[in-house]
């Protein structure tokens, strides 16, 4: 069944028949799917009073285990953000009472960020709905298709410069 990308490719073929637009079949669809996924995730998280960037900070703390506390350097490494971006997110989450911040005793210039009880409760509730949303979005694919897509996207990410994590499956 033709989609918007097929129509775009056909339009190019009509106005510029010699132009190779075959890459749009993949890149165009990835772009459209990315926009749709981002919008769906944002709607789901908004139901919990969260934005995707805030969710990422909270989930990073939660995944760290133990007391759900990390120094900002560890968060920067894990989240691949600039220090300014992470600081802005943390500031907002502190205002909302979802995280607390204190000086890092091991690093005089560092800060430790900890998930509050309210932050953990909101994150845990949001995560249940977030993962259910993922399942809804993938419901049209079989397990095999999901596995194939995972492998293809991993290979594609690697081909454009995303380094695999040490020990990650190939």
How would you describe what is shown here?
By secondary structure, the chain is mainly α. It folds into two domains: 1-46; 50-138, Arc Repressor Mutant, subunit A (Orthogonal Bundle), CATH 1.10.10.10. Helix content is 63%, strand content 11%. The chain contains seven helices and three strands. It has helices at residues 4-15, 24-46, 52-63, 72-79, 83-95, 117-138, 143-159, and strands at residues 69-71, 99-104, 107-115. The chain has a three-stranded antiparallel beta sheet with strand order 1-3-2. Helix 1 packs antiparallel against helix 2 (24-46) and helix 2 (24-46) packs antiparallel against helix 6. It is elongated, with a radius of gyration of 20 Å. It starts with a helix and ends in an 11-residue tail after the last helix. The model has no long low-confidence stretch (mean pLDDT 92).
Brief sketch in words of this structure:
The chain is mainly α.
Number of domains: 2
Report the radius of gyration as a whole number of Å.
20 Å
Helix count equals 7
CATH class of the largest domain: Mainly Alpha
In the CATH hierarchy, what is the architecture of the largest domain at level 2?
A: Orthogonal Bundle
CATH superfamily of the largest domain: Winged helix-like DNA-binding domain superfamily/Winged helix DNA-binding domain
Strand arrangement, largest sheet?
A: 1-3-2
Q: Give the N-terminus to C-terminus distance in angstroms.
A: 32 Å
Main structural class: mainly alpha
Shape: elongated
Largest sheet: 3 strands, antiparallel
Give the strand tally: 3
Low-confidence stretches: none
Order of helices and strands: HHHEHHEEHH
């Amino acid at each position: 069944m033709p989609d918007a990308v097929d129509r775009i490719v056909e339009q190019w073929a009509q106005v510029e028949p010699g132009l190779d637009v075959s890459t749009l079949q993949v890149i165009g669809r990835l772009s459209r799917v990315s926009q749709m996924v981002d919008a769906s995730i944002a709607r789901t998280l908004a139901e919990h009073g969260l934005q995707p960037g805030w969710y990422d900070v909270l989930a990073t703390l939660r995944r760290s285990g133990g007391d759900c506390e990390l120094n900002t350097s560890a968060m920067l490494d894990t989240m691949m953000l600039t220090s300014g971006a992470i600081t802005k997110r943390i500031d907002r989450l502190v205002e909302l009472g979802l995280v607390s911040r204190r000086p890092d005793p091991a690093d005089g210039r560092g800060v430790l960020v900890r998930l509050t009880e309210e932050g953990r409760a909101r994150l845990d509730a949001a995560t249940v709905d977030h993962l259910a949303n993922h399942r809804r979005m993938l419901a049209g694919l079989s397990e095999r298709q999901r596995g194939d897509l995972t492998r293809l996207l991993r290979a594609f990410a690697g081909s454009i410069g995303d380094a695999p994590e040490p020990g990650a499956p190939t």
